[in-house]
Amino acid sequence: MSSDQRTPTPLRTFRLPPTVDGNDADITLGRALVAAWQSDGIFQISATATQQAATERALAASRAFCGRPLEEKAAHVSDLTYSGYVASGEEETAGERDGSEIFTVCPDIPADDPRVIERWPCHGPAPWPSPAYARAMKDYLAAVGEIGHRLLRLTALGLGLRDTDRFTRLTEDGWHHMRVLRFPPAAATSERGIGAHTDYGLLVIAAQDDVGGLYVRPPVPGEERGRNWLPGESMAGRYEHAEPWTYVAPVPAVFTVFPGDIMQFMTGGALLSTPHKVRLADRERYTLAYFHEPAFNAVARPLTDAGTDEFIHYGTHFTNMFMRCYPNRVTTARIEAEGRLKILDRLREGAPA
Ligand SMILES: O=C(O)CCC(=O)C(=O)O
Ligand SMILES: [Fe+2]
């Protein structure tokens, strides 16, 4: 995509109240958030000074880590968890190599936790580069987690649900995770940052530096959108080269927010999981993509489940998506070699009806 197509589109920006208790102002705000997603696929939340400071510390820790030699960075992987380093070109979207360099942060579960001992897939300690890096990322996760919690209550209100905690009951001990990303400058041969895709959970809350490169696809009336959680309906690569795409211009001190696959599933498509993609710029770019998620063992059901017994067991969905995304990673190999998917069968069977 050439830079002249980067027409900045101003996004709607909202300020969150410190708590969401369901008063009239909360309902009005919730409706506005839902309306913004339904027209634009995305909105912005203003960051408080404390949140912005946490963002800057996380970005600084990421810059310091990414500046280390490749060999040193590549040592931070684990065969128990998908937390850890992903080199530029290692990840593919729709069969094409992405330019992004990533440190994935998944829940950091101590080795003596019963779930690790029982060999639950994806459970284990994070292979942190350093205690300082871990501190910066954990502080950031706490800050955005708070935002996610309030947004889910506002979303329930905005959708007119009587049960304001319809979503947040799923996210107690949520499997929140994040991708800490660096994009290299565009090469003569490639401008590809990350191919078009949707993300897997309830909410995607992201912060970017001042470089730019993110595009989102707004809802398009009548357009077919895959159910990304089903094996045959991956959204990876879909509509990559078909307009409309909105350039998400960097704005200081905001978070961008859009729905993920579980939100699309639960709302029956009233809120679509927003497709997005990244083009490389003329300079390197740093971002933080946080995913606000149900608990590993939570079961998501449609808000109106009349006549369907469809459900998504979140841990199964997460494991499927990461195995699909990283077929050659040591973590995937160990899940397969040790038959760990059997644990998921057992968890799903025990899922509340
Ligand atoms: O860098 C960005 O702005 C988005 C990254 C992204 O889409 C992802 O990591 O899933
Ligand atoms: Fe994404």
From TrEMBL:
<comment type="similarity">
    <text>Belongs to the iron/ascorbate-dependent oxidoreductase family.</text>
</comment>
<feature type="domain" description="Fe2OG dioxygenase">
    <location>
        <begin position="174"/>
        <end position="294"/>
    </location>
</feature>
<dbReference type="InterPro" id="IPR026992">
    <property type="entry name" value="DIOX_N"/>
</dbReference>
<dbReference type="InterPro" id="IPR027443">
    <property type="entry name" value="IPNS-like_sf"/>
</dbReference>
<dbReference type="Pfam" id="PF03171">
    <property type="entry name" value="2OG-FeII_Oxy"/>
</dbReference>
<keyword id="KW-0560">Oxidoreductase</keyword>
<keyword id="KW-0408">Iron</keyword>
<dbReference type="InterPro" id="IPR044861">
    <property type="entry name" value="IPNS-like_FE2OG_OXY"/>
</dbReference>
<dbReference type="InterPro" id="IPR050231">
    <property type="entry name" value="Iron_ascorbate_oxido_reductase"/>
</dbReference>
<protein>
    <submittedName>
        <fullName>2OG-Fe(II) oxygenase family protein</fullName>
    </submittedName>
</protein>
<dbReference type="InterPro" id="IPR005123">
    <property type="entry name" value="Oxoglu/Fe-dep_dioxygenase_dom"/>
</dbReference>
<comment type="pathway">
    <text>Antibiotic biosynthesis.</text>
</comment>
<dbReference type="Pfam" id="PF14226">
    <property type="entry name" value="DIOX_N"/>
</dbReference>
<keyword id="KW-0479">Metal-binding</keyword>
<keyword id="KW-0045">Antibiotic biosynthesis</keyword>
